[in-house]
Amino acid sequence: MVNQGSNRPVLFWGVIVFGMMLLCSGILFAIMWPQLSGKLGGMEKGECQRNLNDIYKAFSLYQDDNVGYLPTAGNWMDLIEPQMSRKKRLRDPAYEDDDRKFGYAYNSRIAGQKGRKLENPGKTELVYDSMNLSRNASDEGTSIPRKGRHKDEGIRGNNVLFAGGAVKFLTGKK
């Protein structure tokens, strides 16, 4: 005859050990979460920068086909989209799961101008993170998120594509 009571201490200590493992895992997760979330935000920031690089290439191809002129403001995404190898690059990665949101705006001050004749292309914003999430959003930089859309090592900021082709992560509004 087997004594059934002899398994209870083993089961009791097994539950205690399992509970301690869960507690330690929770504490470790709580300690690591800020570092992990910062890295994830940094990955999103990098994907956004790749999108803006592809958008710049599409703008360049559009200008080649249109005697050097930049697209008009009202339908800029529609006009450069045929030049894009990946259509999803027109959407900020923060909104890739929502077909109604895009997250980029075009600088309406330079729309329709000869792009390669701009006075200071290295300092002139072309496309940037925007609070206006609609397709073909454009303005004079007024929709750049004040708080910053992306996070890089704990610092919030926005990605901006300049008319000269550089993509920069800027903290603050501009």
Short characterization:
By secondary structure, this protein is an alpha+beta fold. The chain is built from two helices and six strands, in the order H-H-E-E-E-E-E-E.
For the termini, the CA-CA separation is: 81 Å
Query: What is the tally of beta strands?
Result: 6
Number of helices: 2
Spell out the helices and strands N to C.
Answer: HHEEEEEE
Largest sheet: 6 strands, mixed
| Category from helices, strands and their pairing | alpha+beta
The overall average pLDDT, rounded, is 85
Radius of gyration: 25 Å
How would you name the oligomeric state of the polypeptide chains in this document? single chain
Indicate the percent of residues in helices: 25-40%
Percent strand equals: 15-25%
Poorly predicted runs? 35-42
What does the overall shape look like? elongated
Describe this structure in words.
- The protein is α+β, with helices and mostly antiparallel strands.
- The protein contains two helices and six strands; from the N terminus they run ααββββββ.
- Strands 1, 2, 3, 4, 5 and 6 form a six-stranded mixed β-sheet that branches.
- β5 (155-162) and β6 (167-171) form a beta hairpin.
- The longest helix is centred in the first third of the chain and has 58 residues, at 8-65.
- It is elongated and about 90 Å long.
- The relative contact order is 0.15.
- The model is unreliable at 35-42 (pLDDT under 50).
